[in-house]
Amino acid sequence: MGRASLVVAALLMLSAISLVTSRYQARQLYIELGRGQAEARDLDTNWRRLQLERAELARNARVDRAAREELKMIPIVPDRTIYMVQPAPIAGGAQ
């Protein structure tokens, strides 16, 4: 029975080491999962902030104000409008 007891003890030790290793790996994966979820929340928050920023930048009032103040543009008025007339095509098909 001495030899069988040694084999059982060795298998018990291997089983205990395997259990400790698997629990350690499970904890590491749980920590990594938490980090991934936190990163996903951060990315979602940034995405929403960028969507709001894009909507703000595309607003007509902001574009109009930037055109007036930064680019010194003025609204078009009929007396300042120049219409270009396209010349009539030459008959006979000049090459």
UniProtKB/TrEMBL annotation:
Q: What is its main location?
A: membrane
Instruction: Kindly state one GO CC term assigned in the UniProt record.
Output: cell division site
Q: What Pfam families does its record include? A: FtsL
Keywords noted in UniProt: Cell cycle, Cell division, Cell inner membrane, Cell membrane, Membrane, Transmembrane, Transmembrane helix
What are the BP-aspect GO terms?
Answer: FtsZ-dependent cytokinesis
**Superkingdom, natural source:** Bacteria
Which InterPro entries does the entry mention? Cell_div_FtsL (IPR011922)
The protein's topology relative to the membrane is: Single-pass type II membrane protein
Q: Tell me its family.
A: Belongs to the FtsL family.
Instruction: Explain the purpose of this protein.
Output: Essential cell division protein. May link together the upstream cell division proteins, which are predominantly cytoplasmic, with the downstream cell division proteins, which are predominantly periplasmic.
NCBIfam families the UniProt entry points to = ftsL_broad
> How does this polypeptide assemble, per the annotation?
Part of a complex composed of FtsB, FtsL and FtsQ.
Listed name of the protein: Cell division protein FtsL
Say which species the protein is native to: Bordetella genomosp. 12
